[in-house]
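Priority: low. Protein: 4-(cytidine 5'-diphospho)-2-C-methyl-D-erythritol kinase. Input follows.
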Amino acid sequence: MTIPGFNPITLKIPAKLNLYLHAGALRKDGYHDVTMVYQAISLYDTMTISSSIEPHTDFTMAVTGIDSDRIPVDARNLVIKAAKRLAGHIGITNATLHFDLVKSIPTEAGLGGGSADAAAALIGCNYLWNTGLNETQLMEIGAQIGEDVPFFIRGLVGIGTGYHRPVVPVDVDPKSMRTWYWVLGIMPRGLSTKLVFEKSDEFIDRRVRRGEVISSQSEQLAKCLKVDWGNTPFQLLVPELANNLQEVAEELDPDIEVALQAGREAGVIVSLMAGTGTTCLFLAMDEGHAEALVGALTERGIFRRVVRAVGPVEGVRIIR
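Result:
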């Protein structure tokens, strides 16, 4: 399949946080039983995609912004993997694409930046190549790249159950949707997802040896599906917010516990770790409260960066 040249496009790429995350046992396929409730938030990367005809398929990229020196720009990057996966799916053999990625979402922070960028590659290439694939089809391709990738196709709120499994979109009524006001404390160091899950396996093994009953993924999913995550006021959902990897990450990096406690002392509604860490999430009552928290938490000198964000927001979108 051949394609014409086209003008560059730019995409706006949100971060995510997990309102709920429960990591369970290691499956036979090497992945974990995970139940997650996603919310897309207004911390954005941007990516410009340009293309021209070449006699072979070639994908290149450049990265600037936060943590850019830690991000590979070769075939290891999920952006390149996503473009190649989509090209193979539709039979494109002669496209040259270049991705200019500007990072605001930190790496190894539990905010899904790499997966979000991969979703942007799928959406951007789908548009440029005029493939005609719909959101559901793009989500299916995204699930082959990473467990968080499908969520960013639509954004807002969704429920995920792990790698190679679909994300269940949560209905969000624009008329009743409530804004969540977040303050994000970006820690000086990140934690690799692999390391956190390896430590989680140790935690689970210890619990099993003590005779504790480990809840199944079906039980966790049933619990999440009973909650109206998209339209309920956040004040009523506070008891549901949880992340069972937080204890794991705190053992790997005790500074996380110190940082979360700083949030509680500053008067946040909830202190919670993002994903597999290490970003600390602080829920505020409103915009003014969030602004005050940014100042108070910045003064503590614990974080390398403190930013505000709101959610839920839409997934990846083409802006020009």
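The mean pLDDT is 92. The chain has two domains: 6-173, 180-311.
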